[in-house]
Amino acid sequence: MHRSRSRSRSRTGAAVGVGCLLVTTAVAAVPGAGPAATPGSAAVRVRASAVPSVVPSDSPSPARPRIRWGACPERPVPAGMRCGTLTVPLDHSAPAKGTVRIALAEMPANGPRAGRRGSLLLNFGGPGGAGIDALATHAKALAELGERYDLVTFDPRGVGHSEPVSCGGSLEPDPVDSADPAAALAALRAVAARCARASGPVLPYIGTVHVARDMDLIRQALGEDELNYLGFSYGTRLGAVYAAQFPRRVGRMALDGVDNLTEPLVEQALASAQGQQQALDNFLSWCARQPGCVYGTNTRTAKEDVAALVARLDTAPLVDEDGAFFTGQDAATAISIALYSRELWPTLAQALALAERGRDPRGLLRLGAPADPPPSGSAQSPGLVPSDNAAAAMTAVNCADDPDRSADKASPAAVLKRIEGLREEFRQASEIFGPRQLLTVLACYGRPAGTDFIRRIDRPPGAPRMLLVGTRGDPATPYRWTEETAERLGSAVVLDYKGDGHTGYTSSRCVRGYVGDFLVDGRLPSGTRSCPADE
């Protein structure tokens, strides 16, 4: 996924979402002031009526789908990588409604033919993460698996080169009077309507349940009887949903950085704030042991100093080289990005020292800046990816996966009271990340209610054993989600990685060993196993 920072002089809040294999986030803007409600727009009501009721099926498709292979849309790509498209139904429960073209990529196995195992499908995270770009970027990190498997990935529907959704350039609402909750909620409804207009017919069918159905057509097109799969972060939600829909078609499935399946948005946001704060505390403990740490050796006061920096920048922003304000929320976003990988901790320490000692935001800016963004254009421009696609897709998928829209039915005053009632709980979870995560509670306001299928997953009959990897210091997917999802799947082995950062595969040789033993050789021990923290 690609990260972006608003260049506007006045900013609203930003919410950092679940990332992918290495360091990735998507930013979705929501009002930082008061919340409110008005009747939905006609555009949103039309979209709501189009939301399908998806009935999972384990029955075979009538004909084997076909992938059309050709050149890759991203340049450069590793030698041997090829790309293609697969046409799938827009609505799997009503194929006559139309089709969607899914973009795929494949790195053929490079080991001896006698030892090859067919295809391994990968999802690197999101939602809103483009798989083709991720495979091109991270192919070397998967080299061991690439000796035995053809590595295959895809841009999920609505993402990247698979008919990308958009919100017309930004998810930020128009400025409103912060004292008027009705106006604030009306602005959120206007954003939802703008997303519906800019995205086209794919938007109501972008949720994980539909993407999992696409995955089964990909399996068929690859000629595989079972799906072998490795999913990171959001890709773990996708894998769990696939296993719930097609339990008898699951081959070897490993999920790393395990996402939540059951909690509503409020609980997810609170858990995310707690996870980010724990990761920051771990970083500050590490920093205190390094020579020259800007916060010294007292970790308690260090925590207070970082919170003070964020608060100070919100009231007196720094100015970057382009003349744009760099606020406390921008700083919190940059910090959260660096917490995704322990390899970035030295860079974060240097960036905080620059900001504290020299009032220089450049180090934090580099942490929060986009890396190699794709070509941008309108949602209707063939071959181009809208600049807001990652953020638009993240919000759309998360909302399609969440059935709760109780705030939409409440009065503006009741919504405001609810948010204000949560404010202290979120602040106690984290003075830095709590207020930002609280903003995500209304991210789905004005959008159609999503499916309740994911929350109802409960030990799918016939599912084989799977490997779930949870990291104790994960800032994006708290370790307890690994245990909870394992319980919901009912056939999972948990690998407890004692390290830091988001996901464990790239940072831990021990984790790679367990994942490789399972995916390549089928060796999967029983019970919970553990891997030590990074050296």
How would you describe this structure to a colleague?
- With 535 residues, this protein is an alpha/beta fold.
- It is 38% helix and 14% strand.
- It is built from 17 helices and 14 strands.
- It has helices spanning 42-50, 131-138, 143-146, 181-199, 208-221, 234-245, 265-288, 299-315, 328-338, 345-358, 362-368, 389-400, 406-409, 412-429, 434-439, 479-489, 509-521; strands at residues 13-16, 27-30, 67-70, 82-89, 99-107, 119-123, 150-155, 227-232, 250-256, 318-319, 325-326, 466-473, 492-500, 529-531.
- The strands form 3 sheets. A 10-stranded mixed sheet has the order 3-4-5-7-6-8-9-12-13-14, sandwiched between helices. It has a two-stranded antiparallel ribbon with strand order 1-2. A two-stranded antiparallel ribbon has the order 10-11.
- β12 (466-473), α16 and β13 form a beta-alpha-beta unit.
- α1 crosses α4 (181-199), α5 (208-221) crosses α6 and α8 (299-315) packs across α9 (328-338).
- The longest helix is centred in the middle third of the chain and has 24 residues, at 265-288.
- 56% of the residues are buried.
